[in-house]
Amino acid sequence: MTRQDPAGAPLLEVRGVTKSFGAVAAVAGVSFGLHAGEAHALVGENGAGKSTIVKMLAGVHKPDDGTLLLDGEPVEFGSPADAKAAGIAVIYQEPTLFPDLSVAENIVMGRHPRKSLGRIDRAAIRAEAERLFARLGVRIDPARPARGLSIADQQIVEIAKALSADARVLVMDEPTAALTRIEVERLFTVARALRQEGAAIMFISHRFEEITELCQRVTIMRDGKHVSTDALEDVTVEEMVKRMVGRDLDALFPKQDVEPGAVVLEVEGLAREGVFRDISFSVRAGEIVAFAGLVGSGRSEVVQAVFGVDERDAGVVKVSGKKLKPHSSRAAMAAGMALVPEDRRQQGLIMDLSIERNVTLPRSRALSKLGFLSGASERQEARHWTERLRTKYRRLGDPVGTLSGGNQQKVVLAKWLAMAPKVLIVDEPTRGIDVGTKAEVHRLMSSLAAEGVAVVMVSSELPEVLGMADRVLVMREGRIVAELPRAEATEDSVMFAAMGQGAAA
Protein backbone atom coordinates (compact mmCIF):
# COMPACT_ATOMS: atom_id res chain seq x y z
CA MET A 1 0.00 0.00 0.00
CA THR A 2 2.69 2.46 0.98
CA ARG A 3 4.99 3.84 -1.64
CA GLN A 4 8.55 4.50 -0.53
CA ASP A 5 9.91 8.05 -0.40
CA PRO A 6 11.61 9.26 -3.58
CA ALA A 7 15.35 8.98 -3.92
CA GLY A 8 17.25 11.26 -1.56
CA ALA A 9 16.84 11.97 2.12
CA PRO A 10 13.84 14.02 3.27
CA LEU A 11 14.45 17.61 4.25
CA LEU A 12 12.29 17.02 7.33
CA GLU A 13 11.39 13.57 8.65
CA VAL A 14 8.91 12.45 11.28
CA ARG A 15 10.13 9.07 12.52
CA GLY A 16 8.03 6.93 14.89
CA VAL A 17 6.67 9.87 16.88
CA THR A 18 4.22 9.31 19.72
CA LYS A 19 2.33 11.86 21.81
CA SER A 20 -0.22 11.20 24.55
CA PHE A 21 -2.37 13.51 26.65
CA GLY A 22 -3.25 11.65 29.82
CA ALA A 23 -4.57 8.23 28.82
CA VAL A 24 -5.37 9.36 25.27
CA ALA A 25 -2.78 8.63 22.57
CA ALA A 26 -3.18 11.48 20.08
CA VAL A 27 -0.34 10.20 17.85
CA ALA A 28 1.12 6.68 17.94
CA GLY A 29 4.25 5.71 16.00
CA VAL A 30 3.75 7.98 12.97
CA SER A 31 6.45 8.24 10.29
CA PHE A 32 6.70 10.17 7.01
CA GLY A 33 9.10 12.55 5.27
CA LEU A 34 8.86 15.96 3.61
CA HIS A 35 11.13 16.48 0.59
CA ALA A 36 12.52 19.71 -0.80
CA GLY A 37 10.57 20.90 -3.82
CA GLU A 38 7.49 18.86 -2.92
CA ALA A 39 4.00 19.57 -1.57
CA HIS A 40 2.90 16.77 0.75
CA ALA A 41 -0.73 16.44 1.94
CA LEU A 42 -1.55 15.22 5.44
CA VAL A 43 -5.17 14.04 5.67
CA GLY A 44 -7.44 12.28 8.14
CA GLU A 45 -10.69 12.73 10.02
CA ASN A 46 -10.98 15.29 12.81
CA GLY A 47 -9.22 13.74 15.79
CA ALA A 48 -6.88 11.66 13.59
CA GLY A 49 -3.81 13.41 15.06
CA LYS A 50 -3.00 15.93 12.31
CA SER A 51 -3.04 18.96 14.62
CA THR A 52 -0.77 17.21 17.12
CA ILE A 53 1.74 16.52 14.33
CA VAL A 54 1.60 20.19 13.34
CA LYS A 55 2.19 21.32 16.93
CA MET A 56 5.19 19.01 17.27
CA LEU A 57 6.71 20.45 14.09
CA ALA A 58 5.94 23.96 15.35
CA GLY A 59 7.66 23.36 18.70
CA VAL A 60 4.44 23.64 20.73
CA HIS A 61 4.56 19.97 21.83
CA LYS A 62 7.50 17.64 22.32
CA PRO A 63 7.14 14.00 21.19
CA ASP A 64 6.94 11.49 24.04
CA ASP A 65 8.82 9.05 21.83
CA GLY A 66 10.29 9.01 18.33
CA THR A 67 12.43 11.55 16.52
CA LEU A 68 12.22 14.60 14.29
CA LEU A 69 15.08 14.83 11.79
CA LEU A 70 16.13 17.93 9.83
CA ASP A 71 18.62 17.34 7.02
CA GLY A 72 19.04 13.84 8.41
CA GLU A 73 20.06 15.05 11.89
CA PRO A 74 17.86 14.63 15.01
CA VAL A 75 16.41 17.90 16.31
CA GLU A 76 14.50 18.87 19.44
CA PHE A 77 12.29 21.94 19.60
CA GLY A 78 11.78 23.30 23.09
CA SER A 79 9.61 26.16 21.87
CA PRO A 80 8.09 27.67 18.71
CA ALA A 81 11.11 29.96 18.54
CA ASP A 82 13.36 26.89 18.19
CA ALA A 83 11.27 25.58 15.29
CA LYS A 84 11.32 28.97 13.54
CA ALA A 85 15.08 29.22 14.00
CA ALA A 86 15.39 25.79 12.36
CA GLY A 87 13.51 27.05 9.31
CA ILE A 88 10.01 25.65 9.99
CA ALA A 89 7.04 27.98 9.58
CA VAL A 90 3.37 27.21 10.20
CA ILE A 91 0.54 29.03 8.40
CA TYR A 92 -2.66 28.48 10.35
CA GLN A 93 -6.27 28.74 9.16
CA GLU A 94 -6.62 31.87 11.29
CA PRO A 95 -3.45 34.03 11.01
CA THR A 96 -2.05 35.68 14.13
CA LEU A 97 -0.80 39.08 13.01
CA PHE A 98 -0.52 42.14 15.24
CA PRO A 99 -3.48 44.18 13.94
CA ASP A 100 -2.22 47.65 14.91
CA LEU A 101 1.24 47.22 13.37
CA SER A 102 1.96 47.71 9.70
CA VAL A 103 2.25 44.82 7.30
CA ALA A 104 6.02 45.41 7.03
CA GLU A 105 6.46 45.50 10.82
CA ASN A 106 4.60 42.19 11.15
CA ILE A 107 6.94 40.60 8.60
CA VAL A 108 10.14 41.52 10.48
CA MET A 109 8.71 41.16 14.00
CA GLY A 110 11.56 40.26 16.38
CA ARG A 111 14.22 40.84 13.69
CA HIS A 112 13.99 44.59 13.05
CA PRO A 113 16.92 45.94 10.98
CA ARG A 114 18.79 48.66 12.88
CA LYS A 115 20.66 51.83 12.07
CA SER A 116 23.55 53.19 14.06
CA LEU A 117 22.81 53.84 17.73
CA GLY A 118 20.26 51.02 17.64
CA ARG A 119 17.49 52.93 15.88
CA ILE A 120 15.03 50.90 13.79
CA ASP A 121 15.65 51.25 10.06
CA ARG A 122 12.12 51.76 8.74
CA ALA A 123 13.24 52.22 5.15
CA ALA A 124 14.96 48.83 5.29
CA ILE A 125 11.82 47.25 6.78
CA ARG A 126 9.68 48.56 3.92
CA ALA A 127 12.25 47.52 1.32
CA GLU A 128 12.33 43.99 2.75
CA ALA A 129 8.54 43.73 2.58
CA GLU A 130 8.45 45.03 -1.00
CA ARG A 131 11.17 42.54 -2.01
CA LEU A 132 9.25 39.62 -0.52
CA PHE A 133 5.92 40.62 -2.08
CA ALA A 134 7.64 40.99 -5.47
CA ARG A 135 9.12 37.52 -5.01
CA LEU A 136 5.65 36.15 -4.22
CA GLY A 137 4.07 38.04 -7.09
CA VAL A 138 1.46 39.85 -4.96
CA ARG A 139 0.58 43.47 -4.31
CA ILE A 140 0.07 44.50 -0.70
CA ASP A 141 0.98 47.93 0.69
CA PRO A 142 3.72 47.34 3.29
CA ALA A 143 2.78 50.52 5.15
CA ARG A 144 -0.89 49.70 5.74
CA PRO A 145 -2.00 48.35 9.13
CA ALA A 146 -2.65 44.62 9.32
CA ARG A 147 -6.10 45.34 10.74
CA GLY A 148 -8.69 45.04 8.00
CA LEU A 149 -6.68 42.74 5.75
CA SER A 150 -8.64 39.84 4.29
CA ILE A 151 -7.82 36.36 5.59
CA ALA A 152 -6.17 35.64 2.23
CA ASP A 153 -3.88 38.68 2.48
CA GLN A 154 -3.07 37.87 6.11
CA GLN A 155 -1.90 34.42 5.04
CA ILE A 156 0.29 35.95 2.32
CA VAL A 157 1.84 38.21 4.98
CA GLU A 158 2.48 35.13 7.15
CA ILE A 159 4.22 33.44 4.19
CA ALA A 160 6.31 36.57 3.60
CA LYS A 161 7.23 36.52 7.29
CA ALA A 162 8.36 32.89 6.94
CA LEU A 163 10.48 33.71 3.87
CA SER A 164 12.03 36.65 5.66
CA ALA A 165 13.16 34.22 8.37
CA ASP A 166 14.61 31.85 5.71
CA ALA A 167 12.03 29.13 6.32
CA ARG A 168 12.63 25.96 4.30
CA VAL A 169 9.62 23.97 5.53
CA LEU A 170 6.16 25.53 5.24
CA VAL A 171 3.27 23.84 7.09
CA MET A 172 -0.13 25.03 5.83
CA ASP A 173 -2.90 23.99 8.24
CA GLU A 174 -6.36 24.35 6.60
CA PRO A 175 -5.29 27.61 4.92
CA THR A 176 -8.16 27.72 2.40
CA ALA A 177 -11.20 27.17 4.65
CA ALA A 178 -12.25 30.85 4.61
CA LEU A 179 -11.00 31.78 1.11
CA THR A 180 -12.81 32.34 -2.16
CA ARG A 181 -11.76 30.31 -5.19
CA ILE A 182 -9.80 33.25 -6.62
CA GLU A 183 -7.96 33.67 -3.31
CA VAL A 184 -7.21 29.92 -3.23
CA GLU A 185 -5.72 30.09 -6.72
CA ARG A 186 -3.47 32.98 -5.70
CA LEU A 187 -2.34 31.10 -2.58
CA PHE A 188 -1.57 28.01 -4.69
CA THR A 189 0.42 30.10 -7.18
CA VAL A 190 2.55 31.33 -4.28
CA ALA A 191 2.92 27.78 -2.88
CA ARG A 192 4.02 26.43 -6.27
CA ALA A 193 6.61 29.19 -6.59
CA LEU A 194 8.03 28.30 -3.17
CA ARG A 195 8.12 24.64 -4.11
CA GLN A 196 10.04 25.48 -7.28
CA GLU A 197 12.56 27.34 -5.11
CA GLY A 198 13.13 24.16 -3.08
CA ALA A 199 10.86 24.58 -0.08
CA ALA A 200 9.10 21.55 1.42
CA ILE A 201 5.38 22.13 1.92
CA MET A 202 3.04 20.17 4.17
CA PHE A 203 -0.59 20.88 3.25
CA ILE A 204 -3.56 19.97 5.45
CA SER A 205 -7.04 20.20 3.96
CA HIS A 206 -10.40 18.41 3.90
CA ARG A 207 -10.90 19.40 0.25
CA PHE A 208 -9.69 16.61 -1.99
CA GLU A 209 -9.84 18.73 -5.14
CA GLU A 210 -7.27 21.09 -3.58
CA ILE A 211 -5.04 18.22 -2.50
CA THR A 212 -4.96 16.72 -5.99
CA GLU A 213 -4.37 20.16 -7.51
CA LEU A 214 -1.41 21.17 -5.34
CA CYS A 215 0.27 18.09 -3.89
CA GLN A 216 2.52 15.30 -5.17
CA ARG A 217 2.20 12.91 -2.23
CA VAL A 218 -0.30 12.22 0.53
CA THR A 219 0.00 10.72 4.01
CA ILE A 220 -3.22 9.39 5.55
CA MET A 221 -3.78 9.13 9.32
CA ARG A 222 -6.54 7.43 11.28
CA ASP A 223 -7.00 7.33 15.07
CA GLY A 224 -3.55 8.77 15.65
CA LYS A 225 -1.77 6.19 13.47
CA HIS A 226 -0.08 6.24 10.09
CA VAL A 227 -2.16 4.42 7.47
CA SER A 228 -0.32 5.05 4.22
CA THR A 229 1.92 7.38 2.22
CA ASP A 230 1.44 7.41 -1.55
CA ALA A 231 2.10 9.43 -4.66
CA LEU A 232 -1.16 11.21 -5.58
CA GLU A 233 -1.06 9.56 -9.00
CA ASP A 234 -1.20 6.14 -7.34
CA VAL A 235 -4.32 6.62 -5.18
CA THR A 236 -7.88 7.67 -5.97
CA VAL A 237 -10.07 9.95 -3.87
CA GLU A 238 -12.33 6.98 -3.11
CA GLU A 239 -9.35 5.01 -1.78
CA MET A 240 -8.24 7.96 0.37
CA VAL A 241 -11.71 8.32 1.87
CA LYS A 242 -11.91 4.60 2.68
CA ARG A 243 -8.49 4.64 4.39
CA MET A 244 -9.35 7.77 6.37
CA VAL A 245 -12.57 6.46 7.85
CA GLY A 246 -11.65 2.79 7.97
CA ARG A 247 -14.84 1.74 6.25
CA ASP A 248 -16.80 2.23 3.04
CA LEU A 249 -19.13 5.20 3.30
CA ASP A 250 -22.65 4.07 2.49
CA ALA A 251 -23.18 7.48 0.98
CA LEU A 252 -21.77 10.92 1.59
CA PHE A 253 -25.23 12.36 0.95
CA PRO A 254 -27.74 9.93 2.53
CA LYS A 255 -30.87 11.82 1.45
CA GLN A 256 -34.16 10.19 2.43
CA ASP A 257 -37.23 10.57 0.25
CA VAL A 258 -39.79 12.45 2.32
CA GLU A 259 -43.26 13.60 1.33
CA PRO A 260 -43.30 17.30 2.36
CA GLY A 261 -46.05 18.44 4.72
CA ALA A 262 -47.58 21.83 5.40
CA VAL A 263 -45.68 25.09 4.92
CA VAL A 264 -43.76 25.89 8.13
CA LEU A 265 -41.57 28.87 7.15
CA GLU A 266 -42.80 31.73 4.95
CA VAL A 267 -40.64 34.69 3.92
CA GLU A 268 -42.23 37.50 1.91
CA GLY A 269 -40.53 40.57 0.40
CA LEU A 270 -37.50 40.56 2.70
CA ALA A 271 -35.10 43.44 1.96
CA ARG A 272 -32.10 45.21 3.43
CA GLU A 273 -30.71 48.21 1.60
CA GLY A 274 -27.47 47.46 -0.23
CA VAL A 275 -27.45 43.80 0.83
CA PHE A 276 -30.51 41.92 -0.51
CA ARG A 277 -33.97 42.71 -1.85
CA ASP A 278 -37.30 41.08 -2.75
CA ILE A 279 -36.52 37.78 -1.01
CA SER A 280 -39.55 35.49 -0.91
CA PHE A 281 -39.63 31.74 -0.34
CA SER A 282 -41.30 29.05 1.74
CA VAL A 283 -40.19 25.76 3.30
CA ARG A 284 -42.50 22.85 4.12
CA ALA A 285 -42.21 20.30 6.89
CA GLY A 286 -39.80 17.53 5.87
CA GLU A 287 -38.20 19.63 3.13
CA ILE A 288 -34.56 20.67 2.74
CA VAL A 289 -34.18 23.94 0.83
CA ALA A 290 -30.63 25.03 -0.02
CA PHE A 291 -29.34 28.52 -0.79
CA ALA A 292 -26.55 28.46 -3.39
CA GLY A 293 -24.57 31.23 -5.06
CA LEU A 294 -21.18 32.85 -5.20
CA VAL A 295 -19.50 34.34 -2.11
CA GLY A 296 -20.98 37.79 -1.53
CA SER A 297 -24.34 36.99 -3.11
CA GLY A 298 -26.14 37.62 0.21
CA ARG A 299 -27.04 34.07 1.28
CA SER A 300 -25.82 34.26 4.89
CA GLU A 301 -27.21 37.77 5.34
CA VAL A 302 -30.67 36.56 4.30
CA VAL A 303 -30.85 33.69 6.80
CA GLN A 304 -29.48 35.89 9.59
CA ALA A 305 -32.25 38.42 8.88
CA VAL A 306 -34.83 35.60 8.79
CA PHE A 307 -33.66 34.48 12.24
CA GLY A 308 -33.64 38.05 13.54
CA VAL A 309 -29.90 38.39 14.13
CA ASP A 310 -29.63 41.16 11.52
CA GLU A 311 -32.08 43.98 10.86
CA ARG A 312 -34.24 44.12 7.77
CA ASP A 313 -35.79 47.16 6.09
CA ALA A 314 -38.86 45.37 4.75
CA GLY A 315 -40.56 42.01 4.60
CA VAL A 316 -42.42 39.49 6.71
CA VAL A 317 -41.29 36.19 8.28
CA LYS A 318 -43.89 33.67 9.46
CA VAL A 319 -43.50 30.35 11.29
CA SER A 320 -46.58 28.09 11.15
CA GLY A 321 -48.60 31.08 9.96
CA LYS A 322 -47.55 33.33 12.87
CA LYS A 323 -45.83 36.60 11.95
CA LEU A 324 -42.55 37.13 13.80
CA LYS A 325 -41.35 40.35 15.37
CA PRO A 326 -38.51 41.75 13.19
CA HIS A 327 -34.92 41.81 14.46
CA SER A 328 -35.68 39.51 17.38
CA SER A 329 -33.85 36.21 17.58
CA ARG A 330 -35.67 35.62 20.87
CA ALA A 331 -39.00 35.72 19.02
CA ALA A 332 -37.63 33.38 16.34
CA MET A 333 -36.48 30.87 18.97
CA ALA A 334 -39.81 31.07 20.80
CA ALA A 335 -41.58 30.27 17.51
CA GLY A 336 -39.45 27.16 17.03
CA MET A 337 -36.63 28.39 14.79
CA ALA A 338 -32.94 27.51 15.27
CA LEU A 339 -29.84 28.88 13.52
CA VAL A 340 -26.50 27.04 13.30
CA PRO A 341 -24.16 29.88 12.21
CA GLU A 342 -21.26 29.69 9.77
CA ASP A 343 -18.68 30.83 12.35
CA ARG A 344 -19.17 28.24 15.10
CA ARG A 345 -16.29 29.56 17.25
CA GLN A 346 -17.41 33.21 17.33
CA GLN A 347 -21.18 32.88 17.02
CA GLY A 348 -22.14 29.34 17.95
CA LEU A 349 -20.12 28.44 21.05
CA ILE A 350 -18.63 29.89 24.22
CA MET A 351 -15.23 28.27 23.96
CA ASP A 352 -14.25 28.45 27.66
CA LEU A 353 -17.50 26.87 28.87
CA SER A 354 -17.91 23.11 29.19
CA ILE A 355 -19.38 20.88 26.50
CA GLU A 356 -22.48 20.19 28.61
CA ARG A 357 -23.07 23.87 29.39
CA ASN A 358 -22.82 24.82 25.69
CA VAL A 359 -25.33 22.11 24.76
CA THR A 360 -27.88 23.11 27.39
CA LEU A 361 -27.44 26.90 27.33
CA PRO A 362 -30.65 27.67 25.37
CA ARG A 363 -32.62 25.37 27.73
CA SER A 364 -31.05 26.43 31.00
CA ARG A 365 -34.36 27.91 32.25
CA ALA A 366 -36.33 24.76 31.41
CA LEU A 367 -33.74 22.59 33.19
CA SER A 368 -33.73 24.78 36.32
CA LYS A 369 -35.69 24.12 39.50
CA LEU A 370 -36.58 27.05 41.75
CA GLY A 371 -34.07 29.14 39.85
CA PHE A 372 -31.19 26.69 40.25
CA LEU A 373 -29.75 24.75 37.33
CA SER A 374 -29.61 21.03 38.04
CA GLY A 375 -26.20 19.60 37.20
CA ALA A 376 -27.64 16.10 36.82
CA SER A 377 -30.36 17.28 34.43
CA GLU A 378 -27.85 19.31 32.45
CA ARG A 379 -25.49 16.35 32.16
CA GLN A 380 -28.27 13.94 31.17
CA GLU A 381 -29.54 16.30 28.45
CA ALA A 382 -26.05 16.91 27.09
CA ARG A 383 -25.18 13.21 27.10
CA HIS A 384 -28.35 12.34 25.15
CA TRP A 385 -27.62 14.76 22.31
CA THR A 386 -23.88 14.27 22.11
CA GLU A 387 -24.39 10.51 21.90
CA ARG A 388 -27.02 10.91 19.19
CA LEU A 389 -24.57 13.02 17.17
CA ARG A 390 -21.68 10.61 17.89
CA THR A 391 -19.58 13.37 19.42
CA LYS A 392 -16.07 12.41 20.53
CA TYR A 393 -14.87 13.90 23.84
CA ARG A 394 -13.10 12.85 27.04
CA ARG A 395 -15.47 14.39 29.61
CA LEU A 396 -18.64 16.46 29.24
CA GLY A 397 -17.13 18.88 31.73
CA ASP A 398 -14.15 19.67 29.44
CA PRO A 399 -14.11 23.11 27.72
CA VAL A 400 -15.70 22.89 24.27
CA GLY A 401 -12.57 24.58 22.88
CA THR A 402 -10.63 21.33 23.46
CA LEU A 403 -12.69 19.51 20.81
CA SER A 404 -11.79 19.12 17.14
CA GLY A 405 -13.60 21.33 14.63
CA GLY A 406 -16.00 18.61 13.55
CA ASN A 407 -16.97 17.80 17.13
CA GLN A 408 -17.46 21.50 17.90
CA GLN A 409 -19.89 21.61 14.98
CA LYS A 410 -21.77 18.68 16.49
CA VAL A 411 -22.04 20.51 19.82
CA VAL A 412 -23.56 23.54 18.03
CA LEU A 413 -26.07 21.21 16.37
CA ALA A 414 -26.81 19.47 19.67
CA LYS A 415 -27.47 22.83 21.36
CA TRP A 416 -30.21 23.70 18.90
CA LEU A 417 -31.64 20.22 18.39
CA ALA A 418 -32.30 20.06 22.13
CA MET A 419 -34.83 22.87 21.50
CA ALA A 420 -36.85 20.54 19.19
CA PRO A 421 -37.07 23.19 16.44
CA LYS A 422 -39.73 23.35 13.73
CA VAL A 423 -37.29 25.18 11.43
CA LEU A 424 -33.54 24.47 11.38
CA ILE A 425 -31.28 26.91 9.51
CA VAL A 426 -27.72 25.64 8.96
CA ASP A 427 -25.13 27.98 7.43
CA GLU A 428 -22.17 26.08 5.89
CA PRO A 429 -22.92 22.97 8.01
CA THR A 430 -19.78 21.03 7.03
CA ARG A 431 -17.16 23.73 6.45
CA GLY A 432 -13.78 22.67 7.81
CA ILE A 433 -14.80 19.17 8.91
CA ASP A 434 -13.64 15.83 7.61
CA VAL A 435 -15.44 13.57 5.17
CA GLY A 436 -16.61 11.06 7.76
CA THR A 437 -18.13 13.77 9.97
CA LYS A 438 -19.70 15.36 6.88
CA ALA A 439 -21.56 12.12 6.19
CA GLU A 440 -22.81 12.06 9.81
CA VAL A 441 -24.03 15.67 9.62
CA HIS A 442 -25.79 14.95 6.30
CA ARG A 443 -27.41 11.84 7.78
CA LEU A 444 -28.63 13.88 10.74
CA MET A 445 -30.10 16.60 8.50
CA SER A 446 -31.89 13.97 6.45
CA SER A 447 -33.31 12.21 9.53
CA LEU A 448 -34.53 15.54 10.97
CA ALA A 449 -36.35 16.28 7.72
CA ALA A 450 -37.88 12.80 7.89
CA GLU A 451 -39.16 13.71 11.38
CA GLY A 452 -40.91 16.77 9.94
CA VAL A 453 -38.38 19.54 10.56
CA ALA A 454 -38.18 22.23 7.84
CA VAL A 455 -34.47 22.62 6.98
CA VAL A 456 -32.84 25.65 5.34
CA MET A 457 -29.20 25.12 4.31
CA VAL A 458 -26.62 27.61 3.06
CA SER A 459 -23.64 25.96 1.39
CA SER A 460 -20.76 26.92 -0.89
CA GLU A 461 -20.14 23.26 -1.77
CA LEU A 462 -22.14 22.38 -4.88
CA PRO A 463 -21.99 18.59 -4.31
CA GLU A 464 -23.52 19.15 -0.86
CA VAL A 465 -26.27 21.37 -2.31
CA LEU A 466 -27.11 18.90 -5.07
CA GLY A 467 -26.86 15.86 -2.80
CA MET A 468 -29.06 17.11 0.05
CA ALA A 469 -31.58 19.67 -1.25
CA ASP A 470 -35.16 19.09 -2.36
CA ARG A 471 -35.08 22.57 -3.87
CA VAL A 472 -32.21 24.95 -4.64
CA LEU A 473 -32.59 28.74 -4.42
CA VAL A 474 -29.76 30.43 -6.32
CA MET A 475 -28.77 33.94 -5.27
CA ARG A 476 -26.83 36.58 -7.20
CA GLU A 477 -26.16 40.15 -6.13
CA GLY A 478 -28.68 40.04 -3.31
CA ARG A 479 -31.59 38.48 -5.21
CA ILE A 480 -33.00 34.99 -5.76
CA VAL A 481 -32.46 34.49 -9.49
CA ALA A 482 -33.50 30.83 -9.85
CA GLU A 483 -35.48 28.16 -8.04
CA LEU A 484 -34.54 24.63 -9.10
CA PRO A 485 -36.29 21.41 -8.02
CA ARG A 486 -33.99 18.52 -7.15
CA ALA A 487 -34.51 16.81 -10.52
CA GLU A 488 -33.38 19.90 -12.44
CA ALA A 489 -30.51 21.04 -10.20
CA THR A 490 -27.11 20.30 -11.71
CA GLU A 491 -23.70 21.92 -11.31
CA ASP A 492 -24.15 23.63 -14.68
CA SER A 493 -27.67 24.93 -13.99
CA VAL A 494 -26.73 26.30 -10.55
CA MET A 495 -23.52 27.95 -11.77
CA PHE A 496 -25.19 29.46 -14.84
CA ALA A 497 -27.75 31.11 -12.58
CA ALA A 498 -25.19 32.20 -9.98
CA MET A 499 -23.05 33.85 -12.66
CA GLY A 500 -25.98 35.57 -14.36
CA GLN A 501 -25.95 33.55 -17.56
CA GLY A 502 -29.67 32.97 -17.44
CA ALA A 503 -29.66 29.31 -18.48
CA ALA A 504 -31.10 28.14 -15.16
CA ALA A 505 -33.95 30.63 -15.14
From TrEMBL:
The record's CDD domains line, in alphabetical order, gives: ABC_Carb_Monos_I, ABC_Carb_Monos_II
Mind telling me which InterPro entries this protein's record contains? AAA+_ATPase, ABC_carbohydrate_import_ATPase, ABC_transporter-like_ATP-bd, ABC_transporter-like_CS, P-loop_NTPase
Record key words, sorted: ATP-binding, Cell membrane, Membrane, Nucleotide-binding, Repeat, Sugar transport, Translocase, Transport
GO function terms (MF aspect): ATP binding
UniProt-recorded name of the protein = Ribose import ATP-binding protein RbsA
Source organism superkingdom: Bacteria
Q: Which SMART domains match?
A: AAA
Family annotation (PROSITE patterns): ABC_TRANSPORTER_1, ABC_TRANSPORTER_2
Q: Where is the ABC transporter domain?
A: 12-248, 258-502
The protein's matches in Pfam families, at most eight in alphabetical order, are given as: ABC_tran (PF00005)
